[in-house]
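User: Structure please.
Assistant: Input sequence and predicted structure:
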Amino acid sequence: MLNKDTKVVDVIEDPLFKGYGRLIFPTAFGRPSSSMPLSKVGSMLIYHNYVNTETTLDVIGYMMKEVKAGRKIFYDIYTEAEKRRDPDKRDTGLFFFRGKPGAPFGLISAGGGFYYVGSIHESLPHALELSRRGYNGFALVYRTRTADTACEDLARAIRFIFQNKKELGVSTEGYSLWGGSAGARMAAWQGAYGPAGFGEGELPRAAAVIMQYTGHSQYSRLDPPTYACVGDRDGIADWRVMKRRLECLEALGTDTEFHLYHGLRHGFGLGKGTKAEGWIDDAVRFWERNRKRKKVHEKS
């Protein structure tokens, strides 16, 4: 029975997750010890805080239930030929959390300083929460070689979803890009330049970018509406930098929303049990507002 004492390696090796179990956890620094329980997953996420064991169990339990019900939860974004040419692409892919058929999607990239991908804390839980609100949620596992390769993987993931929208049962109208820390940089770059900026051709831009705690400071008129949240004790991403960037975007006429949480450090994820708990509802409202605006604008 899945519980806080279940070993991480047992989840990785579970036949239900054959071929991609290792991608659930940040294994960039090597395989976890055979004795590490799920309650200690936080020790694998060196740049993150407030890792919640109940959330970890919720995510893994949900994925197990989906697979047992015969529903596919993981998709490769590269072909076997592409993986042979670049073996690092074997450690990429999309976890899919289904919402209502035909609902729009949110694509989430976890952070990790481009050293690891903290999906278990910063994208899988987010995708699950989006699905519970009726949206389709995707969590991307990307190459951490460079920021450029990570953005290339994000661009490919967007193209994959667009190309397979019927099979996936998702709407591509008014999609959103989400990310924390390094993943927030990826979302911002992708939002500004689009998949074409990273070699994947012209596709519609995101209706909104949802960013958590990042020092990203670049901005332009190309940036989509942007939501941002951060703690005022974040020693990695200065909240003042985030606030100034959004003020600059506002001055350009771009819709923004900024939330600052007192006492919180870097990498709070969903923020369960913290002052940030519930931020995802604010973010969803922001996305929905701008998704509707984008739809009206495109019709006019």
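DSSP finds ten helices and eight strands in the chain.
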